[in-house]
Amino acid sequence: MPDNEPTRTQARLRLAQQHAHRTDAELAEMEGRFHEAKAEAARANARSARTHAEAVTTQAALAQVRRLCDMTISESVRVQAVEQARDTLAVIDAVTGTALLPGDGAWGSVWLHGNWKWLTKNMTTPERELAADAVARWSAALHAEDEDLEAGEPDGLRWWRD
After folding, report:
1. Within 13 Å of residue 36, how many CA atoms lie on the same side as its CB?
2. Do 85 and 72 contact (CB within 8 A), yes or no?
3. Contact 117, 159 (CB under 8 A)
4. Between the CA of residue 13 and those of 2, 4, 159, what are the distances in Å?
5. pLDDT digits over 103-142, tens only?
6. Cα–Cα distance between 128 and 125 in angstroms, integer?
7. Is 120 exposed, middle or buried (0-12, 13-18, 19+ CB in 10 A)?
């Protein structure tokens, strides 16, 4: 028996080393999957951020076009310019309508549950207008579902205009 003891110990050592190598390989594979999942989450966040940035840019551009059209309608003496401004606003309304844009529901929640005045006080006026437009669309969509077509914007939504 004493002759088999070193051989048995070596066999056990080999088995322990094989097990350790398998465990190390499995651990490395799990870490690889974890890093792949983190990278995919980062890519998804980047896609979401790009989509949000594009939506905000689009909203800002539409707000500027609306502002210019409103200014043309109220200030211009040229009949064709006024008609074109009205046509432009009609197209914008037809395209956007009361359709909710990405983020409108989130702004609606902020309006309902947050401190709207404090939050918007820390924004620039264009940012306030975009946020208020989002809340107005969200509110209009809710009123449309309730078939309350007479309801306007929520009171105090654009407090900085007062």
Report:
1. 6
2. yes
3. yes
4. 17, 14, 77
5. 888 999 999 998 999 999 999 888 888 899 889 888 888 8
6. 5
7. buried
Q: Which two tokens stand for residue 96?
A: 């956007």
User: Which segments of the chain does DSSP mark as H helices, in order?
Assistant: 4-75, 79-96, 104-113, 116-121, 125-145
Q: Tokens 């966040």 belong to which residue?
A: 45
| Torsion sign (Cα): 147, 149, 153, 155 | negative
Secondary structure in 3-state letters for 51-87? HHHHHHHHHHHHHHHHHHHHHHHHHCCCHHHHHHHHH
| 3-state SS, residue 25 | helix
